[in-house]
């Protein structure tokens, strides 16, 4: 806060201004000059204030407090700067009671002084008044929202003028370095630039300065989720859910973190409580359905999804969630309701593209079940086109990256790298394309007494992405140079990092665990370098069957290649090419399971699978459908039943429209189940 401007004789104005200019740089000289002024004009309020300010900056808060207290008592109308300085002096002197009194007066009379609220919040917490502190922080945030500089910075940021917004905030923080609202805004600017580490550091600082800053904590949780720092995200979500300002969104945030951590039962408890308090919440019904599906409570999941679409018939994701229960068939009434919902959305004029494409995917599934394959294809095609328009997928760039990895990890190269990496045998990676049977393999392995099933884990992809970013940022000229630079110690550290980061998903003492992220086929060479004793299982399915099944499946995230028949055909071809190259570079490192063989000769395939992992046969692996573990993928209901063959040739009903897929697959289709010969 600035100094008070109180009427003073004109002859003293220049002297007072000179003292004010010395307060921060030369407080001892400022005090001496203030005393000189007071000798000529005893009790002059501006000089008394300057003297108090100088004493506080000289590390004499008790003396400053006495002087400022007297100044406040002796004035009929105390300016805000006096209360501000008195509060800070009292705080530094350890007199929380007077600090609170001064700040309550300040914020009561001048509620737009954000810094007063934030300091009051800290004093309240020091006095054990946690809820009052929380509310004071929220009042500080509200006051900051009216700060013209912060408004200007926010407007620049939202318009994409990030440099301009940063410059405004930098100037603000030079004046008030501990301004939580400015720090949070700066964090968002860094996040929008893609600088996650700096964004996290800044928003963590904002929350430390103002623990009751709920919007900053909400942003922090979202960043922690993006960084896959799940235990930290949960800790902050627990704090946020306890906010005195009740917001159901905070409970939903906590539940979403619990789901990411695999604690479906705890998430279900949150949803049940929210619905008991207020049943008319379609989003909560939908989220509950997701949890119930994962827990294997199919009938309850169906009920929850039905409740969601009853309350909001245009809720596309809830319709798709019903359709995506592969053992559920939507009837004529459902088709009519979804077609009506599309008409409502078309007439509404709102941007509801996500609801629209979900409804097209859902209608595609319903009409497929009704055997109206031409109409079904039209809806699948429309849903995919809408979704493809929203995402970025560089098929040429991806093919180049896959080819570079295939060229790098040759037998000679791997041998030359020598020993290194983390020797732990714990992970079993199941890789391949989505809808290739990986969930079935996971369920079989997770039914063994020595293996824990987790979920599709992002940790290996995050490690690989971080390494690739060093190439993108220019630290290395290409992928090969980056991998060449990894020392044995680096490889050990990366392998240990993977195990450390995935430990949160391991809930039992079983020695082995499964990472079922299918996209990890892109990183089999890196896995071999940093976790040389990990097992890799390649789940493979007929290319037309696999690609068509993935194309008609809307994935929540990550599978950007799956919304175009040509893109997905190219992706499958890249996958086969890289895995064939890795087979040549590391013979026997990958065990391949063909879905058709698993279906037709299950016991032999299961025994071979267990032998590759180094485990004895257990009958429970053949009775995998009795395993009640949580399963989050699209095949969650299918793996709770014995193996069936219904899905093997579904693509043939659509063969007339799948020419672009067959063309993109090329020789991979012709040579299946073998890989095309190397030219």
UniProtKB/TrEMBL annotation:
PROSITE patterns, sorted: TPR
Q: Name the PANTHER family on file.
A: PROTEIN-TYROSINE SULFOTRANSFERASE (PTHR12788:SF10), PROTEIN-TYROSINE SULFOTRANSFERASE 2 (PTHR12788)
- One family from Pfam that matches here is Sulfotransfer_3
Molecular function GO terms recorded: protein-tyrosine sulfotransferase activity
At which residues are the TPR repeats?
180-213, 282-315
Q: Which domain of life is it from?
A: Bacteria
Please report the name of this protein according to its UniProt entry. Uncharacterized protein
Q: Provide this UniProt record's keywords sorted from A to Z.
A: TPR repeat, Transferase
The organism is Sphingomonas sanxanigenens DSM 19645 = NX02
Q: Does the keyword Transferase apply?
A: yes
């Amino acid at each position: 806060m600035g100094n008070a401007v109180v009427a003073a004789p004109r002859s003293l104005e220049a002297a007072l201004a000179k003292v004010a200019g010395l307060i921060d740089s030369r407080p001892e000289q400022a005090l001496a000059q203030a005393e000189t002024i007071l000798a000529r004009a005893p009790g002059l309020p501006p000089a008394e204030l300057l003297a108090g300010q100088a004493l506080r900056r000289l590390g004499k808060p008790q003396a400053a407090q006495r002087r400022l207290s007297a100044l406040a008592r002796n004035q009929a109308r105390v300016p805000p700067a006096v209360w501000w300085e008195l509060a800070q002096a009292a705080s530094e002197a350890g007199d929380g009671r007077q600090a609170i009194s001064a700040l309550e007066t300040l914020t009561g009379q001048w509620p737009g002084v954000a810094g007063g609220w934030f300091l009051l919040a800290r004093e309240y917490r020091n006095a054990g008044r946690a809820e009052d502190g929380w509310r004071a922080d929220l009042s500080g945030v509200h006051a900051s929202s009216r700060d013209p500089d912060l408004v200007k910075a926010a407007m620049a940021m939202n318009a994409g003028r990030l440099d301009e917004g940063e410059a405004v905030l930098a100037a603000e923080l030079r004046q008030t370095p501990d301004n939580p609202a400015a720090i949070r805004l700066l964090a968002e600017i860094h996040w929008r630039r893609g600088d996650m580490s700096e964004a996290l550091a800044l928003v963590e600082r904002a929350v430390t300065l103002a623990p009751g800053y709920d919007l900053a904590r909400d942003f922090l949780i979202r960043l922690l989720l993006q960084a896959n720092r799940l235990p930290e995200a949960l800790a902050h979500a627990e704090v946020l859910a306890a906010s005195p300002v009740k917001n159901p969104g905070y409970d939903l945030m906590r539940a979403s973190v619990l789901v990411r951590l695999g604690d479906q039962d705890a998430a279900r408890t949150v949803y049940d409580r929210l619905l008991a308090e207020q049943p008319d919440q379609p989003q909560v019904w939908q989220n509950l359905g997701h949890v119930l599906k994962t827990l294997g409570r199919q009938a309850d999941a169906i009920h929850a999804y039905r409740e969601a679409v009853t309350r909001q018939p245009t809720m596309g994701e809830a319709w798709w969630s019903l359709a995506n229960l592969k053992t559920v068939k939507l009837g004529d009434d459902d088709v009519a309701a979804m077609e009506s919902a599309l008409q409502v959305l078309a007439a509404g004029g709102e941007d509801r593209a996500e609801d629209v494409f979900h409804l097209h995917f859902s209608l595609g599934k319903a009409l497929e079940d009704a055997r109206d394959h031409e109409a079904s294809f039209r809806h699948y095609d429309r849903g995919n086109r809408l979704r493809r328009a929203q995402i970025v997928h560089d098929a040429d760039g991806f093919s180049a990256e896959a080819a570079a990895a295939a060229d790098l990890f040759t037998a000679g190269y791997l041998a030359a790298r020598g020993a290194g990496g983390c020797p732990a045998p714990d992970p079993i990676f199941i890789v391949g394309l989505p809808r290739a049977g990986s969930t079935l393999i996971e369920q079989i392995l997770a039914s063994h007494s020595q293996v824990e099933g987790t979920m599709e884990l992002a940790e290996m992809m995050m490690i690989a992405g971080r390494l690739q970013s060093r190439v993108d940022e220019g630290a290395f000229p290409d992928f090969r140079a980056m991998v060449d630079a990894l020392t044995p110690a680096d490889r050990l550290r990366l392998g240990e990092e993977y195990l450390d980061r995935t430990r949160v998903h391991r809930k039992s003492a079983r020695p082995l665990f499964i990472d079922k992220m299918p996209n990890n086929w892109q990183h089999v060479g890196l896995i071999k370098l940093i976790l040389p004793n990990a097992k890799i299982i390649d789940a493979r399915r007929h290319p037309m069957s696999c690609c068509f099944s993935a194309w008609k499946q809307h994935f929540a995230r990550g599978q950007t290649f799956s919304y175009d028949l040509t893109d997905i055909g190219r992706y499958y071809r890249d996958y086969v090419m890289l895995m064939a190259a890795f087979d040549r570079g590391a013979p026997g490192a990958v065990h391949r399971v063909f879905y058709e063989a698993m279906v037709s000769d299950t016991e032999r395939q299961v025994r071979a699978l267990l032998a590759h992992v180094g485990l004895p046969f257990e009958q429970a692996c053949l009775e995998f459908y009795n395993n009640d573990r949580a399963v989050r993928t699209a095949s969650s209901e299918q793996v709770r039943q014995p193996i069936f063959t219904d899905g093997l040739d579904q693509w043939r009903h659509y063969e007339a429209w799948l020419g672009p897929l067959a063309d993109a697959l090329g020789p991979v289709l012709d040579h299946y189940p073998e890989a095309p010969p190397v030219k």
